[in-house]
Structure formats: structure tokens, C-alpha cells
Amino acid sequence: MSEGIELLEERANREYKYGFTTNIETDTVQKGLSDEIIRLISAKKNEPEWLLEFRLKAFHHWQTLEMPRWAHVKFPEIDFQDIIYYAAPKTKKAKPGSLDEVDPELLKTLDKLGISLKEQKRLSGVAVDVVMDSTSVATTFQSQLAEKGIIFSSISEAIQKHPDLVRKYLGSVVPMTDNFFAALNSAVFTDGSFCYIPKGVRCPMELSTYFRINQENSGQFERTLIVCEDGAYVSYLEGCTAPRRDDNQLHAAIVEMIAGDNAEIKYSTVQNWYPGDANGVGGVFNFVTKRGMCRGHHSKISWTQVETGSAITWKYPSVILKGDYSIGEFYSVALTTGFQQADTGTKMQHIGKNTRSRIVSKGISAGKSQNSYRGLVRAAKTADNARNYSQCDSLLLGDKCGAHTFPYIESKNNTAIIEHEATTSKIGEDQLFYCQQRGIDPEKAVALIVTGFAKEVMNNLPMEFAIEAQKLLAVSLEGSVG
Amino acid sequence: MNTIHTDYLKDDFESLLSAQPDSALNGWRKEGFDNFTKLGLPTLKNEFWKYTGVARLFVKDYGVPGGECTIDESIIKKAAIPGSEDFNQLVIINGKYIPQYSNIQETEGIEICSLDEAAKGKYHDVVQEYFGKSGLFLKDGIYALNTSFFDGAVFILIKKNHTISNPVYFNHIFDTTQNHLLASPRSLVIVEENANVSLIESYCTNGSMDSLSNEVMEVVAKDNSHVEVYRIQNDQPTGSHVGTTHIRQVGKCFVNTVVVSMDGGMIRNNTNVIMEKEGNEAHLYGLYFLKGHTHVDNHTLVDNSKPRGLSNELYKGIMDDYSTGIFSGRILVRPDAQKIDAYQTNNNILISDKATVNTKPQLEIYADDVKCSHGCTVGRLDEEALYYLRTRGIDKDLAQAMLLKAFAEDIVNHIKVASVKDYVNKLIATRLNMED
Questions:
Q1: What is the CB neighbour count within 10 angstroms for residue A84?
Q2: HEC per residue, chain B
Q3: What is the predicted pLDDT for the residue at A135?
Q4: Chain Cα centroid distance, residue B222
Q5: Most CB within 10 Å of its CB: which of A327, A432, B36, B39?
């Protein structure tokens, strides 16, 4: 009996858990995009002249571009004039010095999302930067990190305090002319995180950014810049949610990472934007450009992503393997249910000698969703002895969904070895039968099998994230079986 | 000026129409030219033509063949695959089927005539039903260009319950002694119930100017039929080629295709297998062994719209010198096409540091109860295997040749016509400086 009630409750809760909105006073600019709006945003953030120029240049370039349509996703025209490009929770001060000064309503929201800043500070030892709508609202552990010379702050703060560093690296990996959304982001980015690890420092804790879109009709355009100097190491986490709304919200972020000699950056994402309701109405359009540059020799950049949210995901975390002996890794689990569409994958650009890359992508499609892997592995003429191995497996749950694989492999070097493997199948009847025979109900059995299917990727997530991601997978799968 | 231009084709098109005012095919041609005018030549921005800049061939003025074609018999003999004397040979000059040069050995169970004749005569309905249906899948300017300019197209019908024991051989010859040539060979092959046929094509450019042959072959295979299609490309570097083999499996049947590209200019091969009935089986093989500046782009499509289809694809490439090899395979499983087994493999070896390979094996799957996989590799010869051979006293060149020959053999072994297989083996051996 009680089990029945539990199940009912579970079903009821299946709706997007983070779909509430917070009533915080926000400071917004009017809808639309123009030189004036960009000047206004820049002025509100008290930015130096060079950055305004950077923004305007990007905006003017963006105006010459067309919305890319090559991805395997369908969506209506986006009216870029109908979006609020700047929305910030109003606080008394520009940035609270300690947690006590943060709007209590905001703290409550964060508690609800499971990122209690206070608790996190005490227990898990993860430094968090929270970005709500367009601005960073809180950053923890800053002082402890500063002792080691690590800079971890919102990017707006970094622009004020470390303009030279930001200017040096901003747009160096993802130039503003890179693509349609990169140009848009470069024009209007409002906040994000900046992280700088000096030479030889191993970052003692995990750094984390939490993104949330709250304001209606607003887009989120954050920018993350991570610089890891020679011999440094950092592990970086990113999470995101958005309230439930009937119209589509736009999220177009840029993440840039630079790794020096012998440096290592590990970037993990659990993406859980609002995916839209059961009829495919609403949801976040997630059009993100993420790229890391292995600039130094023996450097390493590793992307791990768990994608469960967003109505549309359009995201290719890439690595440019420029330094000799550098390593790029990409581990991904993409789960689509309902009417979600995902076109995600990676790009590995082998330029240096003896570079290595590894791609493990697991796609799970259920409901009426479409899930595509799109990846590029390119060995340039200079990439002697480059080595790549890619594996893309797709699992289909239900006969109305689709799973697609579009790998691109380009080699100009005869010493490079590139391998790609992909399979598509449904859950094995025998595996399900085995579980059910042992008294595991079908839904749990599917969750178990899917967890096993995704294990190779999950193992690469930091502990706290791995647990969250596993729960997220199970929750997202509910109701998609049978 | 070296700019891409196609304006002159309009005049050529109009003179083609006015030369044949009562051709039954003009409706298709007009539609084709309208499409061409609308679409233009595909650019690299077209995903389907991402790696092959076919438009850049059009910096020169191509002549479109018109009127009579005469050619020396010795050239026909020279162009033919050795051992093809027993074949049912169709001589296609500049894209036109020329009956007086052709040599059809068998008449029982096979009907060969020009497409125009077929469309006007007793095969009117058949042509109406099956001709031009590949246009639903090929929506680019190059296809439209063929549909505009095809002339002297062939119609072949293999009658019910007949096995054609000698292969049907298309000996394509392009005469470029006078001008650059744009040829548009076209054929429609209907294989009726329980019929069995092998189709072979070879291409030869004769002359010092450039040729571009833009070919479309449509094959319709009905219930219980067995169709083999072999295309052997060993033309001069001045001979460029875009060829589509579009096979519709309208009944439950078996199809085997092998494309061997050894030499030529810019080559693009489209091999489409459209499975329209439950339980179809198709095998697609390809070998591209390239040297010089040859550019070969193999595109395949296996379209499963009905359940229980089986398809197997294996393409292998060896790139030497400055050559470029491309493979782009697409397996499409449409909704409700359950119990599909579809496999795709592409292996590439680069033996020169100036060569390029691009490969794009794709799966597009909308049904859940399927087993689909693809794998592809790009690399060099196995060091271990080389070492093994060398420790047994085989010199480096020979060891390498042996390994490459073995690599290619996986494809060659799927050619079931002995004389064609011998010919391809000989070409490979010559390339590797080996004795056969």
C-alpha cells in the first residue's frame, strides 16, 4: 500500500523539480539588442573602454551572421529583439562581501536548489560562484583561495580587479567571430566566472559555478574563463537550472580554458535546464560554445558532461591539442526524454606532436526525443603520432525516439591513428528479464541498466556530482519505460 | 579568368531541346534545368558536398555533346576491360548509348533500347513509374544537371525468371580530342521478379582535354531478384566523374555493389540503396587506392523504411601521394522499421604524408529495435606485421605491398565476375609493383 502511495508521489513529482520562480526584485534593461543596449550594459557594469569596444565589434559582426541550421534539431525562429539581455537581482551593494549580506530570498532559492552556500561552505569544501540571470550573486571561499594566489571570482569582478589578465585571455580560445552564438555572447555577456591558477599551484578544492535563469523573457549569456598556468591543476564544476515557463529561454554561453605546460583542467557539467513540459512547450534553448586550449606541452583538458535538461542542446566542448604530448578527453552522457532534442559532441583538433584524445559518448533517448552525437576529430599535417579513440553508444528506450551519430574524421598525417566506433541498440530483453526475475520492477531495472550503460562516464565525475548525476538520470527516466 | 561559370549551359540546353523536339523525355529535362537554374552548383557549404568542391571544375568551358558520335573501333577495344569479350557490351560514347558499336550477346530475357524509345513504346508505363525517382533523394544542382542534359540514355529490362549469364557491361568512353567534355550518361535498369543480373561499368577518357561525366543509373529490383553492380574507375587524371547508382529494392531481393576507384581526377560516387520492402538485403563495398592528385568521395545511403532489413557496408581506402579519400556513409532507419541490422565499416591507410582522408560514417535511427553499428579507422600499416614479414627476409617494399594487397583483397573478393576480379587484382599488383 505504502509503496503504491510512494509511486504515486514519485509520479506527481516527476515534473521538473526546479521549475519554481523566485520573487526577487530585479534590475533589467528593456528588451532588444542594439548599440545602445550594449553601451547600457557595459555602463551598468562600469566596464573599461576596451571591453565596450570588444562588445560592439562582436555585435557588428553578429549582425552579418545568420542563424546556423546544420544541427539535427528543429526549432522556431528566435526573435533576438524579444529577449532581455540584462537582468540582475537587486542588491544593496554591488556585490555582497559576506553571505549575511545576500538577499535572504535568494539564499532560500539556493537552498531549494540544493546549493546551500552556508552549508556548502562548512561541509563539502567546494568554492561556489552563483550566477543568477545576468550577474554573479555570491562567491565563496575567495579569501582561502587567494592565499594560494588563485583568483576565483565573477568575471565582472575580475574585469575590475584584474583587467590585464582578462584582456589577455578573453576571446583567445573562442574568438568573437567563431560562430553566431559566440558573437552574440561576446556582444552581450553579462557575467560568469573567472578562474586563474598560478604556476605550479594545485587548486586545493573543487571550484564550482551555479547558473540559474530566473527572470522571464531573459536570456542568459555567461562567460567562463579558466586559465591554468604551467604545472597547475584545477577541477571545475558547473550546474544549472531554470524555472518552468511556457516560452523558450535562450542560454548562449562561452567557456574558454587555457592550459599551460604540464597543466591539467578537469571540467564537469551537470546540465539540467528546464526541458519543457510533457507536450514539448517551453524549455531552455541551450546553445553553448565550450573550448579548451592545451597550449603547453604535456597539458591535459578533460570535459565530462551529463546532459539531461534543455529543450534543445547544441553544444560541442572541444579541445585544441596544440602542445606536444597534450591530452584531450571528452566523456558525455546525454539523456533526452519527452520532446527534447540534443545535438552534442566534441571536437578534437590535433596540432601538436604525440597528442592523444579520447571520446566516450553515451546517448540515451526516450519518449519522442531526438539525440544526436556530432563530433570532429582532426589530425593536422603537424600532428605526428596523434592518437584518437572514440566510442559512441546510443540506447533507445521507446519506438518514437531517435538516436543519431554524425562523426567527422579528417586526417592529413600518415602517422596519426584514429579509431571510431559506434553502436545503436535498445535495452536487452535478456538484461531486463534477468533483473525482473530477481524482483526488481521494470522501471528500476531500466534505471539500473542505464546507470551501468553510463558508468564509464559517471566514473569521471567528482564524487558529489556523480551522486547527483546518477539521481538525475533515474528521475529523468521515470515514466519513460513501458 | 578562372571563375566558375555555367551561363553558357543555357544555350546548350536550348539547342538540345530544339534538336529533339519530340523526345518523350523533354518534360524531365525541363524540370531538371529549372532545378539547376534554381540550385546552381553545390558549394562546400552544402553538407552533402562538404569535402568535394565540384564547382571548381566549372572554371573551364565544357562542351555538351550533340549530334552523331563516331569513334575508332580500336579505341573501344582499348577502353574495354580485358576479358569482357563475352559480356553484353553497351558502348556509351560521351554519355550516349551507341547501338551500332554495342555487342549484345544474349537476347533471351533481356530488353535493351534507348530510353526515349522505351518511353514512347510498350514500356511507356514502366518508364513513367520508375524513371527519375532518385530525384527524391538527390536534390542538388549536379543531379539536376544530369537530368537536364542526359541524351542517348539506356533502358534495360531483365524479364521475369531470367538469369542473364553474361554480365551487362557499360563501356563508357569520353572523347575529349576536340574540347572539354561534359557528359551526362543516364540509365534505367528494371530487374523483374526472379531475375538475376550483373552490371559492370568502366570509364575511359580518350583525348588530351578534360572530361566530366555526370552519371545517374537507376536500378529497380523486384521480388526475389539478384543484382550485382560493379563500377571500376581507372581513368586518366583528366577524367572527372560524378556517378550515382540509385538502387530501389521494391521487392524482397538481394543487392551487391562494389566500387573500385584506382585513378582519375575528381571522383564522386553516390551509392544509394532504398529498401522499400520487408526483409531486403544489401551489401555495399568500396575500394579506393589513390595516387597523384586523385580525389575520391564515396557517399552511401542505406534507407530502411520497412522492417527486417539487413545491410552491410565495407569501404577501404589507401591514399598515396597528394590524393584525398573521402567516405561518407549514412544509414537511415525510418520510424517503425524495426529489427534492422545495419553495419558500416570504413578503414583507411595513409601511405604518404601529403595525403588526406576525411570520413563521416553516420547513423540516423528513428526506431528502437535495431542493431546498428559503425566503425572507422584511419592509420598506417601495422608495424608489428611489417616487422614480422621483414624478419622473414622480405624486403620493406615487398612487405608493405603484401600488407596493402591483403588490405585491398577484402573488397576485391566481393567481385563475383572472374574477369573483372582478375583485372582489378592486376591493377592493384601493378600499383604495388608486384608480380601478379
A1: 20
A2: CCCCCCCCHHHHHHHHHHHCCCCCCHHHHHHHHHHHHHHCCCCCCCHHHCCCCHHHHHHCCCECCCCCCCCCHHHHHHHCCCCCCCCEEEEEECCEECHHHCECCCCCCEEEEEHHHHHHCCCHHHHHHHCCHHHHCCCCHHHHHHHHHCCCCEEEEECCCCECCCCEEEEEEEECCCCCEEECCEEEEEECCCCEEEEEEEEEEECCCCEEEEEEEEEEECCCCEEEEEEEEECCCCEEEEEEEEEEECCCCEEEEEEEEEECCEEEEEEEEEECCCCCEEEEEEEEEECCCCEEEEEEEEEECCCCCEEEEEEEEEECCCCEEEEEEEEEECCCCCCEEEEEEEEEEECCCCCEEEEEEEEEECCCCEEEEEEEEEECCCHHHHHHHHHCCCCHHHHHHHHHHHHHHHHHCCCCCHHHHHHHHHHHHHHCCCCC
A3: 60
A4: 21
A5: B36
CA dihedral B263, B46, B364, A270 (to 10 degrees): 120
Provide the β-strand partners of residue B54: none
CB pair distance less than 8 Å for A409 and B358: yes
C-alpha A320/C-alpha B259 separation (Å) is: 36
Q: Which amino acid is at B189?
A: V
The reply to whether B416 touches chain A by the CB within 8 Å rule is no
C-alpha cell at B346: 570504413
Report, in this order, helix, strand and coil percent for chain A, each rounded to 5: 25, 35, 40
Cell of A472: 538525475
- Beta bridge partners, A139, equal A129
H or E segment to which residue A95 belongs: none
**B54 within 8 A of B136, measured Cβ to Cβ:** no
Which pLDDT band, with edges at 50, 70 and 90, does A418 fall under?
Answer: very high
Q: Work out the burial of residue B40: count CB atoms within 10 Å of its CB; fewer than 13 is exposed, 13-18 middle, 19 or more buried.
A: middle
Among B43, B322, B363, the residue to mutate for chain A (most A Cβ within 10 A): B363
Task: State the Cα–Cα distance between residues B319 and B351, nearest whole angstrom.
Answer: 6
- Nearest CB to A415 within list B348, B366, B380: B380
Task: Check whether A119 has a pLDDT greater than 50.
Answer: no
> Which helix (DSSP H) or strand (DSSP E) does residue A91 occupy?
none
Enter the C-alpha cell of residue B128. Answer: 513513367
Which of A399, A414, A422 is closest, CB to CB, to B350? A414
In chain B, which residues have pLDDT < 70? Answer: 1, 436
Specify burial of residue A209 (Cβ count, 10 A radius: 0-12, 13-18, 19+): buried
Are A370 and A405 in contact by the 8 Å Cβ rule? The answer is: no
At how many degrees (to 10) do helices B26-39 and B9-19 cross?
170
What's the confidence (pLDDT) of residue A103? 62
Partners of A398 on chain B (C-beta within 8 Å) are 368
Averaged pLDDT, A169-176: 92
pLDDT tens, position by position, A206-217: 888 877 766 666
Given the C-alpha cell 525516439, which residue does it identify? A401
Q: Work out the pLDDT band at A101, boundaries 50, 70, 90.
A: low
pLDDT of residue A4: 42
Is B361's CB within 8 Å of A407's CB? yes
Asked if the C-beta of A81 comes within 8 angstroms of chain B's C-beta atoms, the answer is: no
**ipTM score:** 0.87
Amino acid at A243: P
CA distance A172 to A178: 11
| Least CB–CB distance from A423: residue in B351, B355, B373 | B373
Q: What percent of chain A has pLDDT over 90?
A: 43
Q: Are A135 and A222 in contact (CB under 8 A)?
A: no
Judged by a CB distance cut-off of 8 A, whether residue B353 touches chain A is yes
Q: Alpha carbon of A404 to those of A26, A144, A332: distances in Å?
A: 41, 46, 15
Does residue A60 register a pLDDT over 80?
yes
